[in-house]
Amino acid sequence: MTLETGFERVTLPLEFPFTIARGTTEETENVIVRVGDGEHIGIGGAAPSAHYGETAATVEAVLPDLLAVVEEVGDPHQLARIERRMVERVNLNPAARCAVSIALHDLVAKRLDLPLYRYWGFDPEEVVETSYTIGIDETGAMREKTATARERGYSTLKIKLGTGRDEEIIETIRDEAPDATIRVDANEAWSPREAVRKIDALAEYGVEFVEQPVPAGNPEGMRFVRERSALPIAADESCVTLDDISRVAEIADIANVKLMKCGGLREARAMFAAARAHGLETMLGCMTESNASIAAACHLAPLLDYADLDGSLLLAEDPYDGVPLSEGEIDLAGVGRGTGVSVR
Ligand SMILES: [Mg+2]
């Protein structure tokens, strides 16, 4: 069959400037991919991360080669063949490949008139709620954002740390949200000894787990922290592709998979299977992303112990609708067909 493909860059302002240990962003650029069969159009999104070597420009540079693979194969149901050939044609560039993977999955499920989770046979009741992330800010501003998040019904908060006042921040947020589930992400900011000390303090405030306390380049440091940590440790920057899972199992308790790191929905499913086999808990995270990609990520929720799929929730406005996420509940049963993505 003849498949029509195309892509466009979109600039998405964030609701609040978003600061993590590495820096601040006020807007994000995604690249939206479309694959059509003449009747249905599958939509996918790339949310490139400079930390992993990609920008909107690099995504746009490789998409013509990736979409040429789609047109050559000419059958969207040949997901394994297309994804294998994309890696052969353009290695690295995972966000670019991911956008194509998502668009194809959306198209296939639309052609079958099924929501994606039903195509996979997943149980829509087996979902966890997504966390909502509070970026680093003045402590008072983080208190206000916490109050806003609670008013919007989010009961699981992910707090970005990596400052000289980390304990003050958590004390403040716990005071503002005494009954919320609180997770922490240090984004590689701490030294191993500092991490152990800080995690001891965080445990006093009932934090659930701590993500990437020390740099991914220091796996021995991660192991050091995990062996002494009062809380479970999640690996994010240390957990990029399937190859990493066995190593992550040696140094962490939770594998934080992201579609934009691993390159597609099939790779993500393989990572979750491998993580289970290695005794890891599973988490799916995201970049600052539109529903063009978040919608697909939501269909993996039945495989997760923890979901951090707030990319679209952090945008000032998302041009795409996706899976309903009211109060953090991932409402897969509310999806008609495909990933649930549609132009708003
Ligand atoms: Mg993280």
Automatic annotation (TrEMBL):
GO terms for molecular function: isomerase activity; metal ion binding. Residues 139-232 form the Mandelate racemase/muconate lactonizing enzyme C-terminal domain. Keywords: Isomerase, Magnesium, Metal-binding. The keyword Phosphoprotein does not apply. CDD domains: L-Ala-DL-Glu_epimerase. Its cofactor is Mg(2+). Pfam families: MR_MLE_C (PF13378), MR_MLE_N (PF02746). Belongs to the mandelate racemase/muconate lactonizing enzyme family. This is Dipeptide epimerase. It comes from Halalkalicoccus tibetensis.
